Amino acid sequence: DANRQISEYKFKLSKAEQDITTLEQNIGRLEGQVARYKNAAENAEKVEDELKAEKRKLQRELRTALDKIEEMEMTNSHLIKRLEKMKANRTALLSQQ
Asked: Which residues form a coiled coil (predicted)?
């Protein structure tokens, strides 16, 4: 009876050692995944920061371009008015002659 119990305990010990080995392998695999996910998250944050900086730069460029467009439209309007005045003066001068 004692031999049977010893054999049973040896079997349980062997099974427990196998389970421990399997769990240690799982721990190693999961630690590797955690490291990869951490790297991926850090890279994603870096890319996000770069994209935010690029967005701010593009928004500044857009504001500058819109300001230039507004300035050019005002200049164009002013020049059109001057041209119309010059045409009116020319017509007036021609009609006087």
From this structure: 6-89
